[in-house]
Each structure stands twice: as structure tokens, then as C-alpha cells.
Design brief:
Layout (H helix, E strand, L loop, with lengths): L1 H21 L5 H22 L9 H26 L6 H24 L4
Helix pairs in contact: 1-2, 2-3, 2-4, 3-4
Length: 118
């Protein structure tokens, strides 16, 4: 798990630098807020959703595929949750937490089923 944290830190740093260069007129705080928002919404839930595939996929593959998966799932889930009547002001807080929880549950279930270690 320590390697996952290092990889997430590297992705956060690269994303921050890219956003800092892309939005150089906006300042450091804006780039930092955008980087943290992208990490919270897409990268972290994506990493957790694909954590059970850590033996089959390399770390950066899981980060990239997981971010795309998370973006798709969050978009579709946000649409349907909004149709149900859940206030859209809370989607950015609740939906990533639900995806994080789902990723952790799937990982624990898969590791228990496989009989391996965490």
C-alpha cells in the first residue's frame, strides 16, 4: 500500500505542475485546487475501484484506466441520482465517497474469496 501512496503522490505532483503551466495566469492556489479536485473526483476512486486488479495491471495502468472508469461512473451516477431527487450540490462529496467505499468492499471481498493477503 505504501507504493500506492507514492504513485498517488507522483500523479498529484505531475497533475499540479501540468495545471500550473496550463493556467499560469491564474496562480498557484487555483492550480492546487484544481489538482486536488481532479484527484478527489477521478484518480482516487479509480485507483480504489481497480485495486483488486493489482496483480494483473501495473500501477500506472490502473491509475489511467481507473480515472477514466471513475469519470464515466460518476457522470452516469450523478445523472441518475439527480433524477431521483438528490441535490446536485452534494454530488461532488457523496459520489466519490460511495465509489471509494465500493472499491474497498470489492477489494476486501476479492481478497477474502481468493484467500490472499491485503
Amino acid at each position: 500500500m505504501r507504493e500506492e501512496g507514492k504513485a498517488l503522490g507522483i500523479v498529484a505532483g505531475v497533475l499540479f505542475v501540468v495545471l500550473l503551466v496550463a493556467f499560469y495566469k491564474s496562480g498557484v492556489i487555483v492550480a492546487l485546487r484544481m489538482a486536488l479536485a481532479l484527484l478527489w473526483l477521478f484518480v482516487v476512486p479509480g485507483m480504489l475501484l481497480l485495486l483488486f486488479l493489482r496483480e494483473k495491471l501495473q500501477r500506472m495502468e490502473r491509475i489511467l484506466i481507473g480515472s477514466l472508469l471513475s469519470a464515466g461512473v460518476l457522470g452516469i451516477a450523478s445523472y441518475y441520482v439527480g433524477l431521483i431527487g438528490f441535490n446536485v450540490n452534494y454530488h461532488y462529496l457523496v459520489l466519490p465517497l460511495v465509489l471509494d467505499g465500493a472499491g474497498i468492499i470489492v477489494f476486501l471481498w476479492h481478497s477474502k474469496k481468493k484467500g490472499g493477503e491485503l
